[in-house]
Amino acid sequence: MAAGRGCIETSEIKRDGYWDAAALSACGAVRRQEAKRIGSELYRKMFLESSYSARAKARLPIWQMGGVIDEYGMLQLTRLEFKTDSGSGRITGMRAKDGGYCFDEEMEPNSLFLEEYARTVAEAYGKSGLDCPFVHQFRMYIDLHNISFIRTRYPGDTDLEKLLAYEKETGEPLDYGSSSRLHNRKLKKELGKRKRQVNDKIKSRNGLSEFIVRMREDEYGEAGQFVTQWDYLKVDRNTGRLVSDPKAYTVKEYKSIVETESFNYCKNDRVRVAGIGRLHTRLDVDPANGRTGYENELKREGKKYWMADKAYREEYAGKRGLRTELFSGKRF
Q: Are 239 and 232 in contact (CB under 8 A)?
């Protein structure tokens, strides 16, 4: 079958997409854009049909986007370029370079592909624990996609209003019940002192995608905004890559970098895949340990200053409390 205008032959997809024969058999000659949109229906079909091992499939989208670990231990996706705000310079999203691979702009935080990818990671690393920095840190780019998806597609004066608009449009209830302790960090000298909760964690229905919301105005910003490292990470003007040297950031900036959202490869330890349990701990908690895990040096340095405290009480336990506190009088 000859490729028409805007289409590519399977040989080209294999060359720059690392696909195996089983995946390519599900493809044929296809439109370039859909074949390279990670999370699109065609990409999902090829991903599921691939006969690669689970570990190879877990690395596949990382290879496709040019993943390398830099000198400071940070995963850089070298085939992507960042979108930035013209005024503040804040990172607002990402796109493919030169017609390459990138996340499908239509992929929502509760998507089937993200569930399938998370299950692949569980199959690959469930027994051993996630010991691959590439796969561990890849979640930060999923986070950027999710943050951008909510911020750019939904109406609202704050990020939380936009997130609630997403919930209403999709009819998929968000999860408001998870602990936010790891996202409310303190300096070492403040440990043990009771402080009111500032940040709250809200997850997608499937429990995988996370959003951290500032519930009280503080020196970092207004209530209702996301708390995310992507509002603080910087782009090197010369290379186009993320600035990963910890010395380029202040102690104050470290706080949001370590309190940030973090995509989960398993929603909790009760879920079992192939008979294996404790998967949330093995895949999400242990790899993020600042001493023994697979974090980059920026995260490791930030966690030396900003620590999670056992002296913590959850104040925002459900959706009603969230809406009443911040949006009294508004209807969603």
A: no
